[in-house]
Write a structure and sequence with these properties.
heterodimer; A: 286 residues; mainly alpha; ABC transporter involved in vitamin B12 uptake, BtuC; B: 238 residues; alpha/beta; Rossmann fold; 2 domains
Chain lengths: 286, 238
Amino acid sequence: METFLQVLIDGILSGMVYALVAAGLCLIWGVMDVINFAHGEYLMVAMYVSYWLGFLVNVDPLVSTIAAGVFIFGLGALTYKLIIRFTIGKPGLVALLATFGLAVFLKNLCMNQFSPNFRILSDTWLGGKTFHIGGIILAVPQLMAAVLALVVVVLLYLLINNTRFGWAVQATAMDRDAAELVGINTERIYILVFGIGGACVGIAGGIMPSYLAVHPEVGSMFGLIAFVCVAMGGFGSIPGAFLSGILVGVVEALAGFYIAPVFKYVAVFGLYLAVVFLRPKGIFGW
Amino acid sequence: MIDPILTVSDLHTGYDGVPVVFGISLEIMPGELVAIVGANGAGKTTTMRTISGLLRPFRGRITFLGKEISTLPAHQILRLGISYVPEGRRIFGKLSVKKNLYLGAYAQESQTEVKRRMDELLEIFPVLRKRANQRAETLSGGEQQMLAIARGMISKPKLLMLDEMSLGLMPSMVEKMMETITAINRSGATVLLVEQMVQEALEIAHRGYVIQNGQIIQSGQASQLLDSEEVRKAYLGM
């Protein structure tokens, strides 16, 4: 029983980070109907930002996660201004291929600049620290990442549902022309949404180097899992993405431990297929 | 002499390079209720969408209170004082009635003023007060139309443009809608009304323009247009 609880908690903790990555994607996908294939690479860039800040100027990931969030906010806004806005109103495949190109570019740029080597930060504030509840061991870096993810997702949810800006975002998602007609600068909303979506994944990526190695391929699987969470949670639903993130984390941990590590993604994608088969609009889909 | 609030001169416009409207010119004076009438596909909505900034004109000039607005985006035109209530209601269905109204006043900085204005509008449309916290998509067709108008009015526009307000409503509701539009105009708002229901629109309007195939074929006092043989034959089936 203790082992089961340990695996379950590990799954929940990693699931919360998935949830934050997915929440950012969910916002971009839900509002702009743009499938951002570079979302996982945003995470990878954020991890490098945090890693280099730690390595070169000794800033702990707990602090540099903010810098990574701001950096990826800028990268997201820039992606919109330089790429996405030219794809609005065109078939969905155009934005999808454009962001796929961006993903390949970012990955290869980092490969070229930083080599494919795995890099890990040592001597971080939280590195290696654990605490025990009964027989359960909680790794502090993962716990802190999960708490941070939870806080950011809750703030994002409150921003979208309880503020005038959030209502404007929802209005833009529902009907861009009608939103313009009530005085909403939808172009600005799009830039901010792409930026905020990026900031979410930036914050998640920023804290990860305290427990996960950085390398140019690290974002790919996170990006894919974020897509699964958004589709499973329901198009544009932040609570749905959050719940799916945790579900994915738990299934991944349980399957990895009780079946075999190589089967963990088989279980995750099996769950995804089952959900979209039974409920194509996702758990919280409209 | 009073200057027109809105002047449209030689407007050519359409969609994706395909012209729909060919050289329309019109003027709206402050305090007027003007109707643009015509058959489906005549170019009425295209004209309205261009004035509101949703479409860029191919040629021609639109001025509002003496300022050229032809190339401004819709959100800036709203801030200048033109509110367009589009065809098909276009309310934000998944948001509550109250949130829809708040969004109508998105450009308004003072929240005290927004609350005061919302109270005024809920007096005019009492049914919306009862449904304030309900999702807008759950309202009936007529109630949704009321909400669309109220949302268009909350920013206190200098010119309110209403597009096909009668569409999809039962006759008793159309009558009520026309009464509401008349009351809005009497309260001092300038109204530009686009309608396929020619008789009903011209009955409440001061002046009218008749559009056919993207061109104005007649204009004048609404009563004169109602008496016109051509209008009666083409649109009233008489």
